[in-house]
Amino acid sequence: MSEYRKKAVVLLSGGLDSATTLAIAIDAGFEPYAMTFRYGQRHAIELEAARRIAVLYRVARHEIVDIDLRAFGGSALTSDLALPVDRSLEEMADGIPVTYVPGRNTIFLSFATAWAEVLGADDIFIGVNAIDYSGYPDCRPAYIEAFERMARLATRAGVEGRLLTLHTPLIRWTKAEIIRRGLQLGVDYSQTISCYDPSADGRACGHCDACLLRLKGFREAGASDPALYGR
After folding, report:
1. Hey, which of 122, 158, 167, 181 has its CA 20 to 30 A from 218?
2. Does a structural domain hold residue 207?
């Protein structure tokens, strides 16, 4: 993949945002190294989506890392707690929901930082969003800025003067803006899974926060969501 200028680690969940982030990284000229996590999430079918997307984009390498966050629980995504469904946007904006996974982005970014240092990469892409999101504290600009400062202090590369940069191209975009940009870049959203509680064959529930935000984004973008919905 000699046409790419620099290596970058891209966190790839298999969802809409991470697929768009991968496309943006490639469009910016980076050679992508995709990192996905099997962390005990109830929607582990997203791993298959991540594999498909990694193959589709011919990433330089795709690592699926195992971490058992079910050992701690504390989230509807890593335990048997009930998922919130059919919530209004006002309800989603009120507090931190039970789908928040404690420490998840800190753990993911720590792994990405370690891999980036081994690869000799100075860039990490993550598809966090602080606009159309479910109130997660580790999706805010202040968090990203703090982690970037920490990573520059905590790595040999940083001490030796190579500064790690965390790229968050979606952080201030609405879901509609994300989708429009992805469509411009040719992202095949039929290959992505956003649902927190999909069926065994990959059909989205259409009722969880992730589904509702995705559907809202496609409506506002004036596009049809190619995902399959229904049990």
Report:
1. 167
2. no
